[in-house]
Amino acid sequence: MQLRFLGTSAGMPTRTRHVSALALTFEGQRRWILIDCGEGTQYQLMHTPLSVARLDAVLITHIHGDHCYGLPGLLASASMAGRRAAMTIVGPPAVRDYLEAVKAATGLQLGFELIHVDAATLVNEPLTLTDLAVRATRLSHGVECYAYAFDERHVEASLDTARLAAEGVPPGLIWGQLQRGETVIDDQGRYLCGADYRLSPRTPRRLVVAGDNDTPALLTDICQGADALVHEATYTEAVVKRLGTDNGHSSAARIAAFAERAGPGALILTHFSPRYASRPGGAHHIDEIEHEARAHFTGTLMLAEDLAVYELSRDHTLQRCE
Amino acid sequence: MQLRFLGTSAGMPTRTRHVSALALTFEGQRRWILIDCGEGTQYQLMHTPLSVARLDAVLITHIHGDHCYGLPGLLASASMAGRRAAMTIVGPPAVRDYLEAVKAATGLQLGFELIHVDAATLVNEPLTLTDLAVRATRLSHGVECYAYAFDERHVEASLDTARLAAEGVPPGLIWGQLQRGETVIDDQGRYLCGADYRLSPRTPRRLVVAGDNDTPALLTDICQGADALVHEATYTEAVVKRLGTDNGHSSAARIAAFAERAGPGALILTHFSPRYASRPGGAHHIDEIEHEARAHFTGTLMLAEDLAVYELSRDHTLQRCE
Q1: Helices then strands (H, E): number in chain A?
Q2: Is residue A214 among the annotated active site residues?
Q3: Which CATH superfamily is domain A2-155+202-320 in?
Q4: CA distance B54 to A126
Q5: Beta bridge partners of A87
Q6: How many CB pairs under 8 A join A and B?
Q7: How sure is the predictor about A28, in pLDDT bands with cuts at 50, 70 and 90?
Q8: A315 a known binding residue?
Q9: What does this protein's record comment on cofactor binding (chains A, B) (predicted)?
Q10: Cα distance between residue B189 and residue B178, in whole Å
Q11: Are A13 and B80 a contacting pair at CB < 8 A?
């Protein structure tokens, strides 16, 4: 399961960070999922192997412009490139209203159907996308805003190859039959029962990707059993204090302290205020976010970068791979 | 007068071309004008010395997405960056409807006023922007679409310094008074009349920037006396014939042949179909556009590139300077 960040800036872009967008891909699947679609997302995609022809669904966390202003252009380009397969759009009802308003005002006609799904329905009833079950949780951000949880639906059973070797069952067709749980007779006339050679399936992976949110505790339930949480850390506490408001956002300290309690092994921070520069010389440096978060979170901590790719492995560890 | 292309692709972007946007700047002016604002324009601006704080007006040629989907994000970022000065938005009434629909649907609040001007009013009554008189002409493109003509309003008179030297009038305050047309008495008691020493002012520059258009002849009047015409050349004739339609656009041959008759000394082509690659290996190469245009136009011909800067000098010549 790979997380490819296309934009990691809050509100407005910088020279090194586009506004919010995150692509989710899966082993062996060419179909993929996009979470948020800030302006310029279709430009960032040209620097990846991903194609809008294979884009299964777009999930919008909330209707603020830095999370959705790239959607009309992305859809228009997909249509011009010949896409005819329907696309699922998940989000608050405002997303549908926004797209319909833009289509009407600008005469945009798409060569494919948009299947709108109200994110609120995913709070109680998971939606299946590619091979994932997707649930939603309402957050706190002024406008209707959601976190999405992605659960693997099918986890393959692995085969106890050590036992097979010890019992003198050579690799071949029989191994596949045993892995599928079948009972077979081998060339020595032995009855072999699949159940005896299948190892317990590993635990399915769970990823949670949150929209903007000033109340991390709202994520407590959805984070149970999660391997990784992607959450905004728009400011440091020092900046929140100086501004006199968090503007509906979380500080690095607040989300890191929550993650430490809630238990995901890995925390990826994103959606940084443009005041935090990636290079020396700015009023603030992105390292301030990292230092503040590390003081509260002892797990695997990543600060997302544009076009960086993070892999959530089957062994539930997260690492950066590009 | 400088033309800085921010996007030169038709319909959808490519790896080397953003969708349409063009910045106009003027000698000695920090205020500037934007013509069209396709998605990603605010990203391109970060690669220029231009600031949205000094953006005087945005002129939209027509409401198609590749010419306006960057506008909400650009306005939002200008507001977040602290802009409070009103901004003029010129275009068909659909532009106002589009912006109001996006603002309503996404809760976008700007910290400055938008002064909407219906482009149709500029057909008969020029609008003054920075130091330019801007007129409009209706084009043919399915939706309401315009070309904008930019005329210098003030042209400085130059002084006949050779005559002043020959008559023994030394450089000094008197030269400035004479240049302003005043009558003065010099230290030899001579009456000197400004009108006798001012050379005829140079002809004001005129630039025409057209939106998408399948009927170049509609530009005949507005191109009279123009130094340069910026016009789309979406396809070559070979591609138009194969598609069986021009989709409301002009071929390189058609606009070049028009320009040859209509008389602008320079023609800048832009808005190229993504099928024309800038590097070898594509189905078509951008050189095909150039070859076709050169066969019909004998003046200065340029094919716009993203982030390229073209200077229209006081001597009415056009050249690429970046």
Answers
A1: 10, 19
A2: no
A3: Ribonuclease Z/Hydroxyacylglutathione hydrolase-like (3.60.15.10)
A4: 49
A5: A114
A6: 112
A7: confident
A8: no
A9: Binds 2 Zn(2+) ions.
A10: 15
A11: no
Extended strands (E) in chain B: 2-7, 21-25, 32-37, 55-59, 87-91, 114-118, 127-129, 132-138, 146-152, 183-185, 191-193, 206-210, 228-232, 266-270, 276-277, 284-285, 300-303, 309-312, 318-320
In chain B, residues 47-86 whose CB comes closer than 8 Å to chain A: 63-66, 68-70, 72-73, 76-77, 80-81
Picking from A277-291, A298-312, B37-51, which range would have the lowest pLDDT averaged per residue? Answer: A277-291
CATH superfamily of B2-155+202-314: Ribonuclease Z/Hydroxyacylglutathione hydrolase-like (3.60.15.10)
CB A300 within 8 A of CB A315: no
B247-300 tens-digit pLDDT: 899 999 999 999 999 989 999 999 999 999 877 777 899 999 999 999 999 999
> What number of residues does chain A have?
322
Residue B55 pLDDT exceeds 90:
yes
- Of A81-95, B28-42, B179-193, which range is least confident? B179-193
* Nearest Cα residue in chain B from A105: B98
Q: Where are the domains of chain A?
A: 2-155+202-320, 161-197
A260, A253 contact by CB (below 8 A): no
Interface predicted TM-score (ipTM): 0.90
Nearest CB partner across the interface for A69, out of B13, B18, B73: B73
* pLDDT the model gives residue B179: 86
Give me the residue from A39, A81, A94 closest to B12, CB to CB. Answer: A81
Instruction: Return the structure tokens found at A50.
Output: 């991903």
Min Cα–Cα distance to chain B from A179, Å: 46
Instruction: Give bridge partners of residue A186 from the DSSP assignment.
Output: none
Structure confidence by residue, pLDDT tens digits, A86-95: 999 999 999 9
Which entry of A36, A66, A227, A306 is annotated as an active-site residue?
Answer: A66
Q: How far apart (Å, rounded) are the C-alpha atoms in residues A242 and A24?
A: 36
